[in-house]
Write a structure and sequence with these properties.
- It is built from 15 helices and 16 strands.
- The protein starts with a strand and ends with a helix.
- The longest helix has 20 residues.
- The chain is α+β, with helices and mostly antiparallel strands and 479 residues long.
- Helix content is 41%, strand content 20%.
- The structure holds adenosine-5'-diphosphate, magnesium ion and zinc ion.
- The site of magnesium ion has 3 residues, from loops.
- It catalyses: L-aspartyl-tRNA(Asn) + L-glutamine + ATP + H2O = L-asparaginyl-tRNA(Asn) + L-glutamate + ADP + phosphate + 2 H(+); L-glutamyl-tRNA(Gln) + L-glutamine + ATP + H2O = L-glutaminyl-tRNA(Gln) + L-glutamate + ADP + phosphate + H(+).
- Its EC number is 6.3.5.-.
- This is Aspartyl/glutamyl-tRNA(Asn/Gln) amidotransferase subunit B.
């Protein structure tokens, strides 16, 4: 490797407030074009914005989750630019006094842990959307998204590969999801990133000229765009050419990026303090209150799962990939009284079923408590693990309570040892040849006889009990 890549990200995430940032229009994805807007969010002259308190609080919570300091005094600024999806011809954003600053997250890399610094998180309004496909010569504007509250998380140029960027975005996404401030639906554009990439020759310190790719809305695409850009810049430098500082558009379908325009500088935006909105100030008590309101975050949960419950790291990570799944696990674990068995059963059996039938954890068709009860019965040998799996399958089909399914199918383990004893004796007398072989020392036939007994008991025999009785009956025959 001749060059060292440097990557900085600007991650935009829409906040899940009920209403928009400066008006009471609803925040929800989709809808008939231009049905979720009003004079304020379509930028009519004479209207006045009112800052949404919840949006400010969510920004603080995001900042706390991402280990930022909260500015006790911050303000909104006008960023002037003309674009058809921005009807006011300026965006209300934050310039020099963002709500959050100086944070970061630790990610895992092949060379160990690495702290990626976050420079700032500011609050701003989202723009509308342009639809280019309906007519040849025209584009259409949909202003439903105008004024949706958006936070922008700006990292320092601390990332060095597509893989690190992917790790980082995934971790930020989880933090925002668990904080409850954003639904982070990348396919709906509620989480998207601008990706800045530069390379510099090994042995030099000064960062190279960067290019920026805007609005990439999948983690995979972010990684692909970075790899492509590193390669493109490498070729240019190898040919002795210079990198132009510019904005490029990543086309994920084609797997390439094209130059869009030369890079604008902050002074091009003619920022000035937004005169229609008063500055925001917090006391340290306000901030502490919001810190307390923050739900338990994934890294805390991870520690609890691995340290307190003894779940292995891979399984703990799997359970944490979604808030619903993690909550489902916790409710199951509490009801079953055995978090480790619950984790195992969910990771292997439940996740397999979710994957096979493309169900998301939110759509599991029964309450976690029911699964907790099933696991408890399995744990106390009231049903075999094999039958527990069958009960689970049926719960997915019918949402019935496990007890009802067990009664219906006769899965309850036979606790009456005399019934097991009779069955074992019967099997032994029907399989003289196998018994003789066992007595000659062929231990393998024990498994065969075990299988015969289980089958005769229709899977309801407690394997431990069958095994014990079978051994003792065979021992009797030995003497
Ligand atoms: P803007 O894009 O608005 O000019 P900044 O200059 O603050 O804003 O930088 C935006 C992003 O670009 C940040 O994430 C920063 O880490 C990253 N960045 C800055 N310089 C470089 C560089 N030489 N190579 C890669 N990323 C960079
Ligand atoms: Mg930028
Ligand atoms: Zn509105």
């Amino acid at each position: 490797m001749k060059y060292i890549p440097t990557i900085g990200l600007e991650i935009h995430s829409e906040l899940s407030t009920k209403s928009k940032i400066f008006c009471d229009c609803p925040v929800s994805f989709g809808g008939e074009p231009n049905t979720r807007c009003c004079p304020v969010c379509t930028g009519m002259p004479g209207t006045l914005p009112v800052l949404n308190k919840q949006a400010v609080e969510y920004t603080v919570m995001a900042g706390l989750a991402l280990n930022c300091k909260i500015n006790e005094f911050s303000k909104m600024d006008r960023k002037n630019y003309f674009y058809p999806d921005l009807p006011k011809a300026y965006q209300i954003s934050q310039f020099d006094l963002p709500i959050c600053k100086d944070g970061g997250l630790t990610i895992n890399t092949p060379d160990g842990e690495k702290f990626i610094r976050i420079e700032r998180i500011h609050l701003e309004e989202d723009a509308g959307k342009l639809l280019h496909d309906s007519y040849d010569r025209y584009s259409l504007a949909d202003y439903n998204r105008c004024g949706v509250p958006l936070i922008e998380i700006v990292t320092k140029p601390d990332l060095s590969s597509a893989e690190e960027a992917r790790e980082f975005v995934e971790k930020v996404r989880l933090m925002l999801l668990y904080s409850g401030v954003s639904d982070c639906r990348m396919e709906e554009g509620s989480l998207r990133a601008d990706v800045n990439v530069s390379i510099r020759p090994v042995g030099t310190d000064e960062l190279g000229t960067r290019t920026e790719m805007k609005n990439i809305n999948s983690i995979k695409a972010i990684a692909r765009a970075i790899d492509y850009e590193i390669e493109r810049q490498t070729e240019l430098l190898d040919e002795g050419k210079k990198i132009t500082q510019e904005t490029r558009r990543w086309d994920d379908g084609k797997g390439e990026s094209k130059s869009l325009r030369s890079k604008e500088n902050a002074h091009d935006y003619r920022y000035f303090p937004e005169p229609d909105i008063v500055p925001v100030s917090f006391t340290s008590e306000d901030i502490e209150k919001l810190r307390k309101a923050l739900p338990e975050l994934p890294d805390k949960r991870f520690e609890r799962y691995t340290k307190d419950y003894g779940i292995n790291e891979a399984d703990a990570n799997l359970l944490l990939t979604s808030v619903s799944l993690s909550d489902f696990f916790e409710a199951t674990a509490a009801e079953s009284g055995n978090p480790k068995t619950a984790a195992n059963f969910i990771v292997v059996e439940v996740l397999r079923r979710l994957n096979d039938s493309c169900i998301t954890p939110e759509d599991i068709p029964f309450d976690a408590k029911l699964l907790g009860r099933l696991i408890k019965m399995m744990d106390s040998d009231e049903i075999t693990s094999n039958n527990a799996k069958k009960v689970l399958a049926e719960m997915f089909e019918t949402s019935k309570e496990p007890e009802a399914i067990i009664a219906e199918k006769g899965y309850k383990v036979i606790n009456d040892t005399s019934e097991v004893e009779n069955t074992v004796k019967e099997i032994l007398s029907n399989n003289e040849k196998a018994v003789a072989e066992y007595l000659e020392g062929k231990e393998k036939t024990f498994g065969f006889l075990m299988g015969q007994c289980s089958r005769a008991l229709a899977g309801r025999g407690n394997p431990k009990v069958i095994q014990e009785i079978l051994r003792s009956e065979l021992n009797k025959l030995k003497s």
